[in-house]
Amino acid sequence: MKFHWFHLMPWPYLPNDFQQKHRSVWVDPDYRLYDAEKGHHLYHEYLDELEFAEKVGFDGICVNEHHSNAYGLMPSPNIMAATLTRRTNRAAIVVMGNSIALYNPPLRVAEEFAMLDVMSGGRLVAGFPVGTSMDTNFAYGVPGAQLRDRYYEAHDLIKQAWTDKGVSAFNGKYTQIRYMNPWPANLDPRWRFDRDVGVVRR
Questions:
Q1: Does domain 4-201 have CATH number 3.20.20.30?
Q2: pLDDT tens across 6-17, in order?
């Protein structure tokens, strides 16, 4: 059994009457409720907590992706993961994960995850969620009818990018790449792919 510390990085400074005066923390929260100076300190506090989780023995430290909300302040979990690769040395870096249907092209995810795996010395655990409707349909505007197709195609592209040796081409419905040759390469044979669950794990 392994234990992981998961952090959503929420915005804790909502007013006490938020539920009475505001519709939701998702998609359209009032931008005036955010304060960049507080956010600066908050990000560092949350990163300190994740680093401390490794020090007290957690096997992995986890970040994730959400958009346009006060529920989780990580539109790019890869930035947080990159920071953690420099400040930790043992715990798995668990990105759970990149909503791959939103990336154009998804090759960007393959490249950034490969960077994270190399930077961390092979500690990356890469998750591929479909994403919530608030993130994918509302905040990023992906039509609901396309979401699963885009997700599966992005998954197949990333798998090909990580497993094919040398230059390859990808000709999908939503993404066409003539020269796919990501550097740094991540061709570790220990990677395991599960297309239905959407999680890549070691």
A1: yes
A2: 999 999 999 999
pTM comes to: 0.90
Three-class secondary structure assignment of the chain: CCCEEECCCCCCCCCCCHHHHCCCCECCCCHHHCCHHHHHHHHHHHHHHHHHHHHCCCCEEEECCCCCECCCCCCCHHHHHHHHHHHCCCCEEEEECCCHHHCCCCHHHHHHHHHHHHHCCCCEEEECCCCCHHHHHHHCCCCHHHHHHHHHHHHHHHHHHHHCCCCEEEECCCCEEEEECCCCCCCCCCCEEECCCCEEEC
Q: What is the pLDDT of residue 174?
A: 97
